[in-house]
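R.M. (postdoc): so does anyone remember the format we settled on? I'll just put the structure tokens first.
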């Protein structure tokens, strides 16, 4: 017997008043892999996605090692501090993990953000990110790395460790969970691994407002399938090369 829809799906319906622009342009609703009764197609899609995550992340990491090496040298030459930036994010099931990025900010940038109230207010108002030209913590090397998304490459290690996926919702900090809860989207967000890329990235990234980003994340999770996953994977290089909203 089919079980009734769970509460969080009902709560999330108001986030999907219309399909995202990608679905509307394609003239179809992506096929959903979800089922309330835990049927086999859902598990099969999950296995296929995880297998592609492992193979794709390993291959892409090997291919981009020269880029990572060059970027690491540039960071070291730019000033003191570690090459990698580490920060706690929330993954599937609410488990926290340490996300890896190439460091694009000055050492002590997180402490500066916590102690500077004006900067902190602007940071929260801009969806937990400061525009590059409005962020004194980011130097020229960091801005260049961000503009080409090179700073995100170490997250391939997060994918290999099973903490992230190549495609999924934006990985958020613990303090941002209250926003997802307010939109009725928290349970949906926690169903899957956060992604290096996602609908939010191929649709404008940091230039999107918070409501749109949450709606796109929710739409992807509620309609996820291996086919939909591959569509986002294939569109990601185009979005990166366009550098649309990358900062």
């Amino acid at each position: 017997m089919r079980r009734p829809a769970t509460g969080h799906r009902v709560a999330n319906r108001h986030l999907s008043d219309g399909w995202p622009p990608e679905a509307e342009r394609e003239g179809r609703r992506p096929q959903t892999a979800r089922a309330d009764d835990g049927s086999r197609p859902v598990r099969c899609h999950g296995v296929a996605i995880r297998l592609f995550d492992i193979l794709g992340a390993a291959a892409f990491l090997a291919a981009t090692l020269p880029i990572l090496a060059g970027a690491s040298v540039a960071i070291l030459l730019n000033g003191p501090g570690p090459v990698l930036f580490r920060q706690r994010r929330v993954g599937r099931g609410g488990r926290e993990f340490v996300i890896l990025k190439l460091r694009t900010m000055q050492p002590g940038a997180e402490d500066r953000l916590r102690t500077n109230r004006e900067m902190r207010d602007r940071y929260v108002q801009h969806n937990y990110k400061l525009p590059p030209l409005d962020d004194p913590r980011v130097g020229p090397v960091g801005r260049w790395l961000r503009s080409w998304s090179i700073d995100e490459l170490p997250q391939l290690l997060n994918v290999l460790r099973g903490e992230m996926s190549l495609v999924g919702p934006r990985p958020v900090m613990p303090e941002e969970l209250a926003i997802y809860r307010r939109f009725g989207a928290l349970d949906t967000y926690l169903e899957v691994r956060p992604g290096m890329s996602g609908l939010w990235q191929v649709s404008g990234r940091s230039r999107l407002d918070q409501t749109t980003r949450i709606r796109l994340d929710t739409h992807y999770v509620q309609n996820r399938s291996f086919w939909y996953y591959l569509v986002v994977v294939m569109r990601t290089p185009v979005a990166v090369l366009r550098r649309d909203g990358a900062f």
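R.M.: ...and that's the designed sequence above, right after the tokens. Also worth knowing: The first strand starts at residue 84 and ends at 90. Residues 1-39 have pLDDT under 50 and may be disordered.
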